[in-house]
Amino acid sequence: MFAVQQFTGIAFYSQALYFLGIIGLPTALTFQLALGGFGVAMLGNIGSWFVMNYIGRRTLLLTGIVLNAFCLMSVGIAGCFTTTAAMYYIGYVMNFAQLFYSPTVGAVSWTISAEVSSVKARAKTQSLAIVTNALVSWAMNFIAPYLINTDQANLGGKAAFVWMALSFLSLLWAWLEVPELRNRTFGELDDMFAQKTPTRHFGKAIIEPSPSFPEA
What residue stretches are annotated with the Major facilitator superfamily (MFS) profile domain (predicted)? Predict the structure, then answer.
């Protein structure tokens, strides 16, 4: 689940200050954009507290992946040009894409990871998930500068196409595997997994009492 956070471009966005300096944006503007991006990220996270219970975890995740994929696509296309307008576009999108990332993929991944795991195995599941997040984050942040640097791959803005492709792979996986958890108790979720309910149908599934938990 946490790998989706990295695959939808957060490692690329985190290189914004460095990358925008390379492509030639003024230092003062780069710093201002970064501050604005941090502010948007904070507001997005706060907004997710309220939105998540109305829209649902699965819907919010899928929407966030799609929005980030198109942001990355637009940055990649802009990176094919060397005009001043293209550079400014990349600068603004890389920082303000947090508007789409933070309240969706950035926030909901933690909630899904906590809620989808079995109650008995939750501590182990969360530990494994966080370690996976750290490893994938390290790999993405290690690779990103090599893709951007002028003395390495020198992809510039076109590096966004790499994360765009990973975003679409994440979208396919999430659509197939991530269930809707809104308004479900942990007992209901365990029952649905035990009954092998397709994850795509969790949101509308009617729960039959588990034989191991007879009705009073």
Answer: 1-182
- Give yes or no for a contact between 193 and 167, defined as CB atoms under 8 angstroms apart: no
CA-to-CA separations, 141 to 78, 134, 173, 216, in angstroms, rounded: 22, 10, 22, 53
The residue ranking higher by pLDDT, 70 or 53, is: 70
CA 182 to the chain's CA centroid: 19
In degrees, to the nearest 5, what angle opens at C-alpha 165 toward C-alphas 159 and 167?
105
pLDDT digits (tens, 9 = 90+) for 74-112: 999 998 988 888 888 888 888 888 888 988 998 888 888
- Name residues whose C-beta falls within 8 Å of residue 155's C-beta, 6 or more positions apart in sequence: 79, 147, 148, 161, 162
Total-model pTM: 0.83
What token pair was written down for 78?
């802009």
